[in-house]
Amino acid sequence: MIAVARGRRAGGCHLPRARSAAPEDGAMIARLRGRAVANTRDGLVLDVGGVGYLVAATPSAVRKADGADEVSLHTYLHVREDALQLYGFAEPGERELFVQLLSVNGVGPKVALAVVSGSPVGELRRAIALEDAARFQAIPGIGKKTAERIVLELKEKLADGVPEAATSTSGGGPHAVARDALVELGWSVVEAEQALAQTDPEAPAEERVRQALKRAA
After folding, report:
1. CATH level 3 topology of 171-216
2. 45 and 62 Cβ atoms separated by less than 8 Å
3. pLDDT computed for residue 34 by the predictor
4. CB-based burial label for 73 (10 Å; 0-12, 13-18, 19+)
5. What are the residues facing 45 on neighbouring strands?
6. Distance CA 35, CA 217 (A)
7. Cα–Cα distance list, 155 to 33, 128, 130, 165, 167 (Å)
8. Cα 73 from Cα 53, distance rounded (Å)
9. Which letter does DSSP use for residue 21 in this model?
10. Residue 185 neighbours by CB distance under 10 Å
């Protein structure tokens, strides 16, 4: 423990302490730049000026750090009474969605990281705009009620960042169409989502179904 001596006036009274503005939650360490020295089950170990920071990172952040002499990650510091945990992201959009997910009742940092890690941010935002709760229900750790809360509580917050064309498409967009097609073929929602995660996200629904079936063959 570090002791700090209080200043005193000549009469022996304590001087008033200077007040400092409290940082925004999670923004105390908003970015780290250094060298990834290890990739463990618990996350990346980032060497910053000789200090190793353990960062639970998204797959895109891990890929960004892999083989790089130096990497810059956007970070979020989650503060609990018994622990401090850093979460790392390859781009600001990942971090922004992560923070927004934390505002949803029942969503903690581990679940929020799993959501952001599962698909590109643009696809996740479109899924929210299209009220595609099944997309989130397929993620481990998220039940039906939590998936519905994510869609309900974040739809209005994210509306400005989603193109109008994405929200006007009937049926939930190409991803939902491909997923529903696989479900009709006997796949579970979880199996369909896992398979589609390995396909080209820019391809039409029919092509993504073909790619998923080919990988499963």
Report:
1. Helicase, Ruva Protein; domain 3 (1.10.8)
2. no
3. 95
4. buried
5. 38, 54
6. 40
7. 33, 6, 8, 15, 11
8. 12
9. P
10. 12
Cβ pair 80, 71 in contact under 8 A: no
Q: 90, 85, 84, 88: which is closest to 46 by C-alpha?
A: 88
Determine the length of the chain.
Answer: 217
25-90 sits in which CATH class? mainly beta
Percent of the chain with pLDDT over 90: 41
Q: What are phi and psi of 67, to 5 degrees?
A: 80, 0
**Distance from C-alpha of 52 to C-alpha of 21, rounded to nearest angstrom:** 28
Question: pLDDT value at position 93?
Answer: 92
Residue ranges matching CATH 1.10.8 in the chain: 171-216
pLDDT digits (tens, 9 = 90+) for 135-178: 898 888 899 999 999 999 998 777 554 444 444 444 557 888 88
Residue identified by tokens 């401090």 is: 84
- In the CATH scheme, what is the code of domain 92-168? 1.10.150.20
